[in-house]
Design a protein that fits this description.
By secondary structure, the chain is mainly beta. It contains two helices and 28 strands. Helix content is 11%, strand content 45%. The strands form seven sheets. Strands 1-28-27-26 form a four-stranded antiparallel beta sheet.
Length: 342
């Protein structure tokens, strides 16, 4: 009887400890979620559907469908422009020659273009054309930049955006993400999206070490790749359809699956400030944050409701801050550093 009573007591204590741990975890998670609201700054909602954003020299610019350009000189007052409603602007970045945006008249067919955008009026000047709509543009530094898009389209500049030349990506798949870790070493990623291509699904990452003259395929899968984030020249992450999160520790030469993220439909964009702390956005209006390299995502921040979040871009004035834009015209600044260092 004494052994039985002792056993019951131990069982009760174990059960009590387990329940207490669960309650404490739920309480901490709830408190964490409430306290994360302060991480979202400068939020506005404009009459547009934004797909790209960048900040340069004190100017924040968001670009989107039907040629919409939103510009702010002080992060508070915004002006919207639509200099060419016949083109969809899908990405934005800055080089030494100015502010640039890319897009096309369609999403999967027709020609694409690189435009220079005026920092005050939003007026567009076409700088270069591509053999397909362009989805993403990024600069490695003030001089070297790239843009990628539909059907493997890719262009490169080495003079800050003044001139662009066509680069062969070696693939006909749609390319949605790119990242160069040096002027010569870079990655492009993409694939087929089920809801855009008759339920076909695929994913690919290709890597170059000679500025795009040659490429090697370093990853293939069933989920389209959407974005890359590298914390140094060795450690990086990639995201995509189905909540996919990949990690590389050798500069993108090989990749392994970290796991699924809470954004089970698609992760459109991600940003990591180090190997452990990062941010993802995509389906829905919620941003999720991790402190363990993507294994868990305890940080949850509602940016908007009922819309996809499309892109992230680093802030030049807020350390570890990232601009985010949404399909409902939402623009905001997420202070990721405030989460990482809590």
């Amino acid at each position: 009887m004494q052994l039985e009573n002792a056993s019951n007591a131990l069982t009760y204590r174990a059960l009590h400890a387990t329940v207490l741990a669960i309650l404490l975890t739920l309480s901490a998670t709830s408190a964490d979620a409430r306290s994360l609201e302060f991480l979202l700054r400068h939020k506005v909602q404009l009459k547009a559907s934004f797909w790209g954003v960048t900040e340069t020299d004190g100017v924040v610019a968001a670009v989107g469908l039907k040629g919409r350009v939103g510009i702010s000189q002080d992060r508070t007052a915004w002006s919207t422009h639509a200099p060419d409603q016949g083109v969809h602007l899908l990405g934005a970045a800055s080089g030494s020659a100015g502010l640039f945006t890319v897009g096309g008249k369609g999403f999967t067919s027709g020609t694409g273009a690189v435009f220079r955008a005026d920092r005050r009026s939003g007026a567009l000047t076409e700088i270069a054309q591509s053999n397909g709509p362009l989805y993403e543009i990024r600069f490695f530094n003030e001089m070297v930049g790239h843009a990628v898009g539909a059907n493997g389209a890719m262009v490169r500049t080495e003079d800050g955006g003044e001139t662009w030349k066509t680069v062969s990506s070696g693939t006909a798949q749609n390319l949605w993400g790119l990242k160069f870790t040096s002027p010569y070493t870079g990655l492009i990623g993409g694939g087929e999206t089920p809801w855009q291509n008759q339920n076909k699904s695929s994913g690919i990452i290709r890597r170059t070490t000679d500025a795009g003259r040659t490429w090697n395929t370093v990853h293939t899968g069933n989920q389209r790749i959407s974005d890359f984030s590298f914390v140094n020249k060795h450690i990086g992450f990639a995201s995509g359809v189905g909540g996919l999160l990949l990690k590389s520790i050798d500069g993108g030469a090989s990749w392994h699956i970290v796991g699924k993220t809470p954004l089970v439909t698609i992760v459109n964009a991600l940003a990591f400030v180090d190997a452990r702390c990062g941010l993802i956005v995509g389906a829905g209006g919620t941003a999720y944050m991790t402190r363990d390299g993507g294994v868990t995502w305890p940080g949850r921040l509602t940016v908007t409701k009922g819309s996809f979040l499309e892109a992230l871009a680093p802030s030049r004035r807020t350390p570890d801050g990232y601009w985010v834009v949404g399909g409902d015209g939402t623009i905001g600044l997420i202070d990721l550093g405030g989460f990482c260092h809590r």
